[in-house]
UniProtKB/TrEMBL annotation:
Entries under Pfam families matching the protein: Ribosomal_L21p
Protein name: Large ribosomal subunit protein bL21
Gene name in the database record: rplU
UniProt keyword Ribonucleoprotein present: yes
Family named by the database record: Belongs to the bacterial ribosomal protein bL21 family.
Keyword check for Endoplasmic reticulum: no
Lineage of source species: Bacteria, Pseudomonadati, Acidobacteriota, Terriglobia, Terriglobales
Subunit structure: Part of the 50S ribosomal subunit. Contacts protein L20.
Functional description taken from the UniProt entry: This protein binds to 23S rRNA in the presence of protein L20.
Molecular function per GO: rRNA binding; structural constituent of ribosome
Amino acid sequence: MYAVIKTGGKQYRVTPGDTLKIETTANENGNIEFADVLAVSAEEGKFESELTGAKVLASVVGTGRGEKILVFKLKRKKQYKKMQGHRQNYVEVKINEILVNGRSFKQEAKTA
């Protein structure tokens, strides 16, 4: 069971129980609801045809900043050099549940 969601200009393939880092988004009491669901598959290779009201529920695990990216600009023979750094903020979320067509898919309990 998986779903493809879109957030922050990117698409993610998620299953219940996954944790992923996404761009900073607004959350209510540590819960995030993704309503922009592009595809849902209950079985491998088969997709749901009707996605009205489909959503993915997640909870916030933590926040942070990503690795530093250095941007270096140079115009040779013109004495122009510029170095700039950037760190993107992110929110780490755990996918709890996928809702589609009145059905709910949650993480299965692991058996040892």
